[in-house]
Structure formats: structure tokens, C-alpha cells
Amino acid sequence: MKDPYNAGITWLDEPLRGAAEGPLDGRTVLVKDLIDTAGIRTTYGSHIYGDHVPDAHATVVQRVLDAGGVVVGKANLPEFAWSVLGANPWYGTVRNPAHPGKTTGGSSAGNAAALAAGLVDLGIGTDTGCSIRLPSAACETVGLKPRWGAIPLDGIFPLCPSLDTVGPMARSVEDAALLWSVMSGRPAPEPRLETRPSGGPPAWRSSARASSRPRSRAPTLTCGRCSCTRPPRATARPSPPGPTSTGT
């Protein structure tokens, strides 16, 4: 795999395949190198784990393989995902295909760069603070930080367990929704916003205006001198009677 953007730490000569068919059906997937892949080096972006090879897949990787996805490599990231940039002192800096000379954002930098360059179809990233959303924005791709707990995190190196999530990255909303469905084991939700012609208010607003009652105005008085109008002056309430004393 030619990788002029340094998007991957490990590219596989023989892609990792699972089911022969499924919702992903042969689509190529780049897995962030914070996520375990059985038999494939997983560094967590650190030199300390440079020769680390897990014995089992993370649940999300297994689900992608079971859905027909093809894992082609492991994406570059900052060491242990501790950065919002795409710089790594051991494996080099990821370069931005969409905006050369500018940062890819991080920490799922390699996934976003590979997608923007068209090297892969889909990516599996992680997001604790902004690690999917920031590089997706910087590289003009699509990414989703799912609701916490919606997708299993086993087999993923922890950053902050109470905030960590794993989510889909893609070049389109449709592809991101499809990958989210596979990763979460839930059907992708149907769009809930109806399209309408531009230039006019939505139907609910027009009907609300038509059925609304006119607001009542405060009563006014006409001044005897200049014929101006003004609201009536509030009349003062009489003071309650004070205590009285009686003679003995």
C-alpha cells in the first residue's frame, strides 16, 4: 500500500477477512492502532508496544469482519491517543490530504487521512474528547462519537474509561451510519427530517401562526391636553387602618 500521508502504522500484505458476505461486503477498513487485532501488531502508538501482538480481536473488529468487512491495516495516531494533533514521535506525523500543510487533528488522525486520500472505504476510530470529530472535520470526512456505552470497548486501550467511545469514520453519512449499525448491533435509524422547498417557512409554523389568537392590548386613556394615549395609572390601595387605643 502506497501511503504518502503516513496514515498507517501497519499495512497488511494479506488483508484480514471474515464472512464472505454481509452488510459491509468487501469494503476495506482501517482500524485505529489503539484497537486490538488478533495476530496483527497493535502498538497503541507507542514504541513500548512496538512488538505487541494481541491474541484476540476487539469486539468491534470481530463484528466488522462478521459483516463482510476487510481489515487492511492499522491507523497511525499520537502515542496512546494523548493528543489532538496527528504527531507521533515514533511513527511520524500524519499529513492532511484535504489541506496540505495543515494538521489532520487527532487522535484518530490516520483514519481520517486515509479516508480523505481514498486509501480505504471505512475506518474505526476512538473518541474521548474529540478524537473522531476533530480529524473528520480537519480532513473533510465524516465521523461519529456514539453515545457512551452504546458500542463495546473491550480490546481497546483505555484513555479515560468514563468518557471513551469507539465509533465509525467514513466519507459519507450513509457509510458512517452503516458502519455504526454493524459496530453497535442495532439498525441504522431512518432520517427524521423531511425536506421542504427553500424560501418558505415549514408547514407547522404556518399553521401555528394561522391558528394563533391575536394578542390583547393593554387598555389606554386619552390625555385631555395633547390627545396622546397612555396606559391608565394604577390606583393606590388604601392603607390598612392602624391600631386604635381606647381609654380606660
Walk me through this protein's architecture:
This protein has 248 residues and is an alpha/beta fold. It has one domain (8-184): Amidase signature (AS) domain (Amidase signature (AS) enzymes, Alpha-Beta Complex). The protein has five helices and eight strands; from the N terminus they run E-E-H-E-H-E-H-E-E-H-H-E-E. It has helices spanning 59-66, 109-117, 133-138, 173-184, 203-211; strands at residues 8-17, 28-32, 70-75, 122-127, 142-143, 165-170, 221-222, 229-230. The strands form two sheets. It has a six-stranded mixed sheet, with helices on both faces. Strands 7-8 form a two-stranded antiparallel sheet. Helix 1 crosses helix 4. The relative contact order is 0.14.
Structural domain tally: 1
Strand content: 15-25%
DSSP summary: helix tally: 5
H/E topology pattern: EEHEHEHEEHHEE
Full CATH superfamily name:
Amidase signature (AS) domain
The residue-averaged pLDDT reads 87
Question: What is the first-to-last residue Cα distance?
Answer: 114 Å
CATH C-level label: Alpha Beta
Query: What is the radius of gyration?
Result: 31 Å
Described by its quaternary structure, the protein is single chain
Beta strands, count: 8
Helix content: 10-25%
How is the main sheet built? 6 strands, mixed
Structural class: alpha/beta
Q: Within the CATH hierarchy, at the fold level, what is the topology? A: Amidase signature (AS) enzymes
- Largest sheet: spatial strand order: 1-3-2-4-6-5
